[in-house]
């Protein structure tokens, strides 16, 4: 019995059907974590990408190091770090929020690279034209660079969203009750792990297939020339 | 300084991490070539099989796969020790992602190269082994480098199926000492250093492959 | 120099049986019909040039002969061998073995050379004789050096394609095709990808081949002066059919068809 749903162990099929509602509750947590984590990664990644282009050498180099460090160390250990170390310094966050921050941090390292590639792909002539029109650096980013960059980076970003989705089960180790956490709990109580684990796998498979198809469509719909922000 | 006393145990864990990572990269690379080549060159049945493998292992979460294998392998009579389970899980994962790299690089070989091979009456195997793969493999190396780092990072998940790798040791020490900041900082630095070494190694391999494929270093017209 | 090339059947028996024969061949790309009821024959040893506007299907003719493209209707034979097998499967309606046999009589020189970038010049020329014909490395190299000498590149044998000029690459490609001793050699605009100052060296090699060997040659080119010099016959090709054909002198000086005249005016200026 969990969330008011009882399991029925008569056959694997009835078992699967009876725990589906429980896992779907876990799915909403998974989706929320991925959505929040990805939003954080998009913002933080952009900040990193811009800082890395800073004219102040120290800022650019420090950012480069931080990004490299985040990218080369495991999400799981970063998560443990946040989960156990922050409270020692008086910052106590709910497990879900800690998980979201960990996901966002890890993936900001990836997204910052995508932004960087996107910015560098803008031809020099565009920057020069903007300078010739006497635009400020900020105006150039807002009106010229980012609008042209967006359609190019959307597919890659989409792939990272899918990748992040598949990493959310890691949050179960810090007691976030997403799908895998629930499946393990069901397993502990019924001594029958394979059905719940298989179901989680299948749900992930469906989810990623749907997301990939969605990204593919989005890629086709987006105007190649760019999207004006205003 | 307490942190010095943590080092021997962490170093032992790091060795386990290194072993699992390297074994998984090696086995995974073999799987990647098999599946990638099957996708491009195989008949309908073979390429569909390879596609299913790729999609299933790319589409379901690695941690879910590891737990699944952990509980499933003993049921089919293979009472694997966790290390084997970890290596099997990671290898299948590397193989699935790597097969996309292999497929992409093979498809990126210009059609004209295949046509020239056909005009010279090369068979399919010869065209693949002598014309397409040598050109494609050079293109694969940077992506395989990233995948190797990815594998090192993901290997931390095997700590959750009770393998005493670096992450597992860190957890144990933290549970005893409650010295979280020190332990996890050391662990993160440990992974970072291992990543750097792995990156360097992949660069060297890339250079060897480039030389093995005998591409001239500098081109002049 | 003759010994480096295949022995050709004697001219008398050849005149009777064409080495290449298209009979009512139709080739479509989806809805687009590129060859429409196409009839065309080439006698052994003959040097034929196809000229015609862009998109008229000249490359398609060569690519069909090289088994790089299948065709839908009609018959095509090479040295008497039909391309389609009676119970052939797949788009080519022939087994791999059958296609292999056909290809053993044909070679092709591509517009963009298509040398193997990861192999040295020597290796490019020896790879196929060794792997496909089963020659020993030493034999293959012997043959390759002769051919490289013939195209004037023996001293470049250890270079890689990227280290050669376009003209040199194309000459290597010609040697590579000849090393398989084909009866028929196809050239698809062999000089179109070259800088103007490099065209001459490649045409020179082809000209020598044409005058000194009884190799059957089918050329597509936009070099009209060259076509006039080397060909026994020029075919003006338009919209998937041969509009007019004949001796080069006549085609270039007194074309009968208005479309031929128009085309020649546009290219000769
Ligand atoms: N793979 C293909 N798929 C669809 N259409 C094709 C394909 N290859 C060629 N075509 C079309 O077939 C027609 C004939 O092409 P082909 O390359 O034979 O012309 P060509 O006479 O060689 O022209 P050019 O002088 O430009 O080389 C063209 O309209 C071309 O667009
Ligand atoms: Mg053409």
UniProtKB/TrEMBL annotation, chain A:
Organism superkingdom: Bacteria
One GO cellular component, as annotated: ATP-binding cassette (ABC) transporter complex
Sample GO molecular function, one term: transmembrane transporter activity
ABC transmembrane type-1 domain span: 27-215
Protein name: Polar amino acid transport system permease protein
Entry's family note: Belongs to the binding-protein-dependent transport system permease family. HisMQ subfamily.
Lineage per the UniProt record: Bacteria, Pseudomonadati, Pseudomonadota, Alphaproteobacteria, Hyphomicrobiales
Native species: Chelatococcus caeni
Membrane topology annotation: Multi-pass membrane protein
Pfam families (UniProt xref): BPD_transp_1
Subcellular localization, as worded in the UniProt entry: Cell inner membrane; Cell membrane
Transmembrane segments: 20-51, 91-110, 193-215
Gene Ontology biological process terms from the UniProt entry: amino acid transport
Keyword annotations: Amino-acid transport, Cell membrane, Membrane, Transmembrane, Transmembrane helix, Transport
TrEMBL record, chain B:
ABC transmembrane type-1 domain sequence ranges: 14-202
BP GO annotations: amino acid transport
Superkingdom in the source lineage: Bacteria
Membrane association type: Multi-pass membrane protein
GO molecular function terms noted in the UniProt entry: transmembrane transporter activity
CDD domains: TM_PBP2
Listed transmembrane segments: 16-38, 181-201
Principal location: membrane
Keyword entries, A-Z: Amino-acid transport, Cell membrane, Membrane, Transmembrane, Transmembrane helix, Transport
GO CC list: ATP-binding cassette (ABC) transporter complex
Compartment(s) where it occurs, according to its Swiss-Prot or TrEMBL record: Cell inner membrane; Cell membrane
Database matches in NCBIfam families: ectoine_ehuC, HEQRo_perm_3TM
Family, similarity comment: Belongs to the binding-protein-dependent transport system permease family. HisMQ subfamily.
Protein name, per record: Polar amino acid transport system permease protein
TrEMBL record, chain C:
Keyword presence, Nucleotide-binding: yes
Membrane topology: Peripheral membrane protein
Pfam families tied to this protein: ABC_tran
Family annotation (InterPro entries): AAA+_ATPase, ABC_ATPase_HisP-typ, ABC_transporter-like_ATP-bd, ABC_transporter-like_CS, Ectoine_EhuA, MetN_ABC_transporter-like, P-loop_NTPase
A cellular-component GO term for this protein: plasma membrane
Keyword ATP-binding recorded: yes
ABC transporter domain: residues covered: 20-264
Keywords: Amino-acid transport, ATP-binding, Cell membrane, Membrane, Nucleotide-binding, Transport
Gene Ontology molecular function: ABC-type amino acid transporter activity; ATP binding; ATP hydrolysis activity
Gene3D superfamilies, A to Z: P-loop containing nucleotide triphosphate hydrolases
Predominant subcellular localization, coarse grouping: membrane
Membrane spanning stretches: none
SMART domains tied to this protein: AAA
PROSITE patterns in the cross-refs: ABC_TRANSPORTER_1, ABC_TRANSPORTER_2
Compartments it resides in: Cell membrane
PANTHER family: AMINO ACID IMPORT ATP-BINDING PROTEIN, GLUTAMATE_ASPARTATE IMPORT ATP-BINDING PROTEIN GLTL
Membership in a protein family: Belongs to the ABC transporter superfamily.
The protein's name: Polar amino acid transport system ATP-binding protein
Organism encoding this protein: Chelatococcus caeni
